[in-house]
């Protein structure tokens, strides 16, 4: 009799555990799961008018993210898998901004990175280009950032660290290339008056390793003119971190000699109008994506190199700071 009662108890416990297990796969929680995303060839995504076809490939790498469920939290917290991570939604955006607004801003930064990539590539290939803007408009100010109670929604950032800001990506790139704890001068226009603030870069919880002042921004008054048309088909990829690899793919289609040497070259890093390659987030997941795609080389911003090296294994890394430097490294690789 006692054995039968125990069997009933065990059966009920197993049933409850099974139900909880199933339910945990459907209950959304305020986190995102981050993991390796695509490492996709760029030649089908980018077409330069009158451009050359090449044997090798540049590969865009991305981080995949999705809304977490309860099971993700338990599993990742308990086992801490190398290829997955959790990021709180509240740490990615201000509390009064919803996910759709945030995605729209990231999509805008992606479009700006395309403009910057085109400008840099055409200049590198010897063309004259024109890109200009009025500055970066402050859309939201985060409570956790150093800009809180100093910058205001509607401020127009026109310079960071004495460097002119013409579009949002300019400000993002300049700040990301500082060290956490550095002080930067932010110059804004507010109601027609020029004002300058000294703000320290901080590390936001949802963006570890990346310096920030805690604002979301968008470009104001963009104007550009390029000598040839460049068509992009990047679908749902957003954010500014593919700017450098965009620039290399465009440049490679503009020049006669294939700079890849027939190899598969993956990479990441923001791009500024002066050709600087800036740090990005999620580099370990991008390295993993490149390895899975069989990349021969992976170029990575100088600031991300140490982290990337921990996960690269046999994948050869190129530490880069500028497009000029990257091109020089690739030319050396071809000769070796």
UniProtKB/TrEMBL annotation:
<dbReference type="Pfam" id="PF05362">
    <property type="entry name" value="Lon_C"/>
</dbReference>
<dbReference type="Pfam" id="PF13180">
    <property type="entry name" value="PDZ_2"/>
</dbReference>
<dbReference type="GO" id="GO:0004176">
    <property type="term" value="F:ATP-dependent peptidase activity"/>
</dbReference>
<feature type="domain" description="PDZ">
    <location>
        <begin position="125"/>
        <end position="192"/>
    </location>
</feature>
<dbReference type="InterPro" id="IPR008269">
    <property type="entry name" value="Lon_proteolytic"/>
</dbReference>
<dbReference type="GO" id="GO:0005524">
    <property type="term" value="F:ATP binding"/>
</dbReference>
<dbReference type="InterPro" id="IPR014721">
    <property type="entry name" value="Ribsml_uS5_D2-typ_fold_subgr"/>
</dbReference>
<dbReference type="InterPro" id="IPR036034">
    <property type="entry name" value="PDZ_sf"/>
</dbReference>
<dbReference type="GO" id="GO:0004252">
    <property type="term" value="F:serine-type endopeptidase activity"/>
</dbReference>
<dbReference type="InterPro" id="IPR020568">
    <property type="entry name" value="Ribosomal_Su5_D2-typ_SF"/>
</dbReference>
<dbReference type="InterPro" id="IPR001478">
    <property type="entry name" value="PDZ"/>
</dbReference>
<dbReference type="InterPro" id="IPR027065">
    <property type="entry name" value="Lon_Prtase"/>
</dbReference>
<protein>
    <submittedName>
        <fullName>PDZ domain-containing protein</fullName>
    </submittedName>
</protein>
<keyword id="KW-1133">Transmembrane helix</keyword>
<feature type="transmembrane region" description="Helical">
    <location>
        <begin position="12"/>
        <end position="31"/>
    </location>
</feature>
<dbReference type="GO" id="GO:0006508">
    <property type="term" value="P:proteolysis"/>
</dbReference>
<keyword id="KW-0812">Transmembrane</keyword>
<dbReference type="GO" id="GO:0030163">
    <property type="term" value="P:protein catabolic process"/>
</dbReference>
<keyword id="KW-0472">Membrane</keyword>
